[in-house]
Specification:
Layout: H1 29-33, E1 48-49, H2 113-122, H3 134-140, E2 153-154, H4 169-191, H5 194-201, H6 208-213, H7 217-221, H8 233-240, H9 242-268, H10 281-295, H11 315-322, H12 326-338, E3 352-354, E4 370-372, E5 375-377, H13 381-391, H14 402-416, E6 428-429, H15 431-446, H16 449-467, E7 468-471, E8 474-477, E9 487-488, E10 501-502, E11 511-513, E12 532-534, E13 543-546, E14 554-557, H17 564-594, H18 600-615, E15 641-644, E16 648-654, E17 660-666, H19 669-679, H20 694-704, H21 710-729, H22 735-752, H23 763-792, H24 811-837, H25 844-849, H26 853-863, H27 873-878
Helix pairs in contact: 2-24, 4-10, 5-9, 5-12, 8-9, 9-10, 10-17, 12-17, 13-14, 17-18, 17-21, 21-22, 23-24
The structure holds a DNA duplex.
Catalytic activity: ATP-independent breakage of single-stranded DNA, followed by passage and rejoining
Region (Disordered): 1-346
Organism: Quillaja saponaria
DNA sequence: TCAGGGACTTGACAATAACCCT
DNA sequence: AGGGTTATTGTCAAGTCCCTGA
């Protein structure tokens, strides 16, 4: 019911960054801040200030502390970005829509009282934020306040997340978990290897907190038992958690791991085969690392055999060297080290064996005639194939798009030929084909379980050999070994090429990359052959072909996310983001200073950096005309930002994937004035930052910190937000309560990053169903209360609705029932609220790409939450490299 | 400095699998 | 047991950023 809407709305401001304010108490302060702009849009107030303190260089230490103290801007190291509000964007679910406004609704978080209470316990206490409605939070940020100059503000608080969250998931989780437990535990083992763990972790000295926390023994005992995961370590922890645990575990594991790996290696090399399947991912990671090290020395020289370019990734390191700040270096260095791999710069592997790619099966004509002007038309298999692609898309939104239909027609017509009976799309009726397709689908559905299973096994058998690669002796999963099948291009947003035929790819278009000594994969299509074979060990792709829609682009086949190659770069990404922690204060101070620079380029860089930092905007590369018209920070157009006095900026534009970004944010006055200046005299359609592009911006960022680019801010802000929220909000409670805390933090990050999803078609139906159930329960409750009164007076219970007599219960029994019913209602209300809240928010993207898994793993260890409650199987595999972090790890 | 090639990450959504409820 | 959900996995489009050559 009613509630629904509320949720997000707030979007407004997500308060992301809580910057300082947050302080503990804060709770409400936010409210006060709210100031929403006139329209109500969002409030935004962020508060944070950036600069201030500036501490000098960044030392790491500070960081963490989010806690309360920070309040002041300066000081804090913490600093988070300000983000404030933003967020949100809620945008309508539909992304497309444009709604002008900000959407932010009034928010109100609503929540039924009851609900809240519960949650509250957990969170609320904390700091504040939680409680606050998103909107509020959002607003909160407004820091600006500061007037002039710099000051960055603190953030506001945060989040808000509605309490309710807990959602059902909880339940599920619990169930699930068990099984998985094992998994996790295993994972943890392996990883541990000293390697990683040790290195980084340390860093954080800061975190004392955590350690202290130490688990409350209490919790553990009770509920969850679930020893799962953590178990191993735990024991250690108790004592002093940190050190020991890390040390010990690692060791054992390591050794074992290594051993295995080695063996594997031996075998593997020559043939792909199965050998290793066994090797657990984690192990491989380690091992690989080891091997890599060796390679390291090589460095550049390794040219790869092939032509191709050089290396790229290594750059980070190099840069580092350059970097100036000494102080920081220390940290930096650590980080770098960690990744053993990266070391070498270019070389990505020494030996690489795989079986190439698998092609989609040839088209099987169905012979169903479509109609043209009401009459059946015979089509050749080629023509029919494309007609079927179109017919099948009947109930998608693409059918409403003229561009889609036009592009389709142009390509299909080429296949039909000029003189074909079919002379236009308008008179075509694809329904017979559509119906045939539906029937096929139905038919498949009707197959017995055994038949389905058999089919599946057959397919798996065929694909098995393509699924694996052996990299430096370790068997790794290949990510996308299937060549993309032909189809109609489904560009997002208003893509000028949507509907065009994406033709079938032939072996002669595919370049294979493989180890020099490895056997060249046999071409699966008889009589055909690969375009080219390369032996380039400076790249990680196994194969590529040119995108048929845009021949300038390539489609690559890479290893899966669980591979050590990917894991390593993932880790490097997070280390770089962590490094930013040490520089952020100075960076903020610097850009704040340049808000008023006379040098317009400098001024634009400052404001753009500020927006990227505060709102987590993407860099915004230039785009071609044959792509959808979307923008990022550097490509914002004049009309995408609307200044609203005194100091609010209303953003409205289509970002990546044509997802709408809408947000009203209070900014520092100098920023506001700078935007006015940049807009002056420009017409709509003109670049707001006309002196800027991503390469200039990134070149500038690199001067501030080695390896720094615009996207690092997103990673940094996402991870630091999670880390701080988890540490601030996790109070006691059982595992379910803690998971709720995690989800709230996760949601906050998703809002900051504007990760949206479309509302499911059945959403409203589901909500009303829940509402009904709650109403029913409330009726029950009422009756119980009546009966209780009567029972106390010695009277028999009232008749039930259907007139039947009820069993006589004691007042105690009735009270118990009432309590149970209340609990049920509260839970349902919470679930509902959560559902509504998450209706348009996608949590997965940030979990996969922006949140340092070590934050999650360490938190799970500290709070005895089984890691599999947070990470599913694929994430556990992907983040195998993070499983052995020290429980004290802080981002 | 710039355009463009190239490699890799990020992202929403579709397809499936796993669950849950009646 | 069936049907609707929800969670997970797969797909592939759309970004970011690097590097080179002119």
């Amino acid at each position: 019911m009613a509630t629904m809407s509320d949720d997000f709305d707030e979007e407004d401001g997500p308060a992301f960054f809580r910057r300082k304010n947050t302080s503990s108490n804060g709770q409400n302060h936010k409210l006060s801040s709210d100031v929403r702009s006139s329209n109500g849009q969002n409030p935004s107030a962020h508060k944070g200030n950036l600069e201030s303190s500036t501490k000098g260089l960044p030392t790491k230490s500070p960081v963490a502390i989010p806690k309360p103290s920070t309040s002041n801007a300066k000081t804090a190291p913490l600093s988070l970005p300000v983000k404030s509000l933003s967020s949100s964007t809620k945008t309508s679910p539909l992304r497309s829509t444009v709604k002008p406004s900000n959407s932010k609704p009034p928010s109100g978080r609503s929540m039924p009282g009851a609900v809240k209470e519960e949650n509250k316990e957990n969170y609320d206490s904390e700091d504040s934020e939680d409680n606050k409605p998103l909107s509020v939070r959002l607003k909160g940020n407004s820091n600006h306040v500061n007037k002039g100059v710099s000051t960055p503000t603190p953030d506001g608080s945060d989040d808000e997340v509605p309490l309710s969250f807990r959602k059902k998931s909880i339940k599920k989780d619990s169930e699930v978990s068990d099984d998985e437990v094992l998994l996790s535990s295993k994972l943890s083992f392996n990883c541990s290897a000293g390697t990683s763990g040790s290195k980084y972790d340390d860093s954080d000295d800061k975190k004392p907190l955590a350690s202290k926390i130490q688990k409350d023994g209490s919790s553990k005992s009770g509920k969850q038992e679930r020893p799962s995961t953590l178990p191993l370590k735990r024991p250690l922890e108790k004592v002093n958690s940190s050190n020991q645990s890390s040390v010990k575990k690692t060791k054992t594991t390591d050794s074992s791991i290594l051993m295995k790996t080695e063996q594997v290696a031996l075998k593997a090399e020559p043939k792909l085969e199965d050998d290793d399947d066994n090797v657990p991912i984690s192990q491989r990671l380690k091992k690989s690392a080891a091997s890599e090290n060796k390679s390291v020395p090589v460095k550049k020289k390794i040219t790869k055999a092939t032509p191709t370019r050089k290396v790229g990734s290594g750059s980070f390191k190099k840069q580092i060297i350059k970097s100036k700040k000494a102080g920081n270096d220390s940290e930096y260095s650590k980080s770098t080290k960690l990744s053993p791999s990266s070391g070498d710069g270019q070389k990505k592997w020494t030996t690489l064996v795989h079986n190439g790619v698998i092609f989609p099966p040839p088209y099987q004509p169905h012979g169903v005639n479509m109609l043209y002007k009401g009459k059946p038309v015979d089509l050749t298999p080629e023509q029919e194939e494309v007609a079927t692609m179109f017919a099948v898309m009947k109930d998608t939104d693409y059918m409403e798009k003229t561009m889609f239909k036009e592009n389709f027609w142009n390509d299909w017509r080429k296949l039909l030929g000029r003189n074909h009976v079919i002379q236009g799309l308008e008179d075509c009726n694809f329904t017979p084909i559509y119906d045939w397709y539906q029937k096929e689908k139905e038919h498949k559905k009707q197959m017995s379980t055994e038949e389905k299973k058999a089919l599946k096994e057959e397919k798996a058998k065929q694909e098995d050999k393509y699924m694996w690669a052996i990299v430096d002796g370790v068997k790794e999963k290949v990510g996308n070994f299937r060549v993309e099948p032909p189809g109609l291009f489904r560009g997002r947003g208003e893509h000028p090429k949507m509907g065009k035929l994406k033709r079938r790819i032939r072996p002669s278009e595919i370049t294979i990359n493989i180890g020099k000594d490895a056997p060249v994969p046999e071409c699966p299509i008889p009589g055909e052959s690969w375009k080219e074979i390369r032996n380039d060990n400076t790249v990680t792709w196994l194969a590529f072909w040119n995108d048929p829609i845009n021949p300038k682009l390539f489609k690559y086949v890479f290893l899966a996310a669980s591979s050590s190659l990917k894991g390593q770069s993932d880790k490097e990404k997070y280390e770089k983001a962590r490094m930013l922690k040490d520089y952020i204060e100075n960076i903020r101070a610097a850009y704040t200073k340049d808000f008023t620079s006379k040098d317009i380029t400098k001024q634009q860089i400052a404001v753009a950096t500020y927006l990227i930092d505060k709102l987590a905007l993407r860099a915004g590369n230039e785009k071609d005309d044959d792509e959808a018209d979307t923008v990022g920070c550097c490509t914002l157009k004049v009309e995408n930002v609307k200044p609203v006095a005194p100091n609010t900026l209303e953003f409205s534009f289509l970002g990546k994937d044509s997802i709408k970004y809408e947000n009203a944010v209070e900014v520092e006055l100098p920023v506001y004035n700078a935007i006015l200046k940049f807009q002056k005299g420009k017409r709509p359609g003109v670049d707001l930052f006309d002196k800027l592009d991503t390469s200039k911006l990134n070149a500038h960022l690199k001067e501030l910190m080695p390896g720094l680019t615009a996207k690092v801010f997103r990673t940094y802000n996402a991870s630091i937000t999670l880390d701080e929220m988890l540490n601030r909000e996790t109070k006691g409670g059982d595992v379910a309560d803690k998971i709720v805390v995690y989800q709230i933090a996760n949601k906050q990050v998703a809002i900051i990053c504007n990760h949206q999803r479309t509302v499911s078609k059945s959403h409203s139906a589901q909500m009303s169903r829940l509402t009904e159930k709650i109403d029913d329960l409330e009726g029950v409750l009422k009756e119980l209360k009546t009966d209780l009164d009567r029972a106390k007076k010695g009277k028999p219970p009232s008749k039930s609705a259907d007139g039947k007599k009820k069993k006589i219960l004691t007042p105690e029994a009735l009270e118990k029932k009432i309590a149970q019913t209340n609990a049920k209602i509260e839970k349902m209300q919470r679930d509902m609220k959560t559902k509504e809240d998450l209706k348009t928010v996608a949590l997965g993207t940030s979990k996969i790409n922006y949140l340092d898994p070590r934050i999650t793993v360490a938190w799970c260890k500290r709070h005895e939450v089984p890691i599999e409650k947070i990470f599913n199987k694929s994430l556990l595999a992907k983040f195998a490299w993070a499983m052995d972090v020290d429980p004290d790890f802080r981002f």
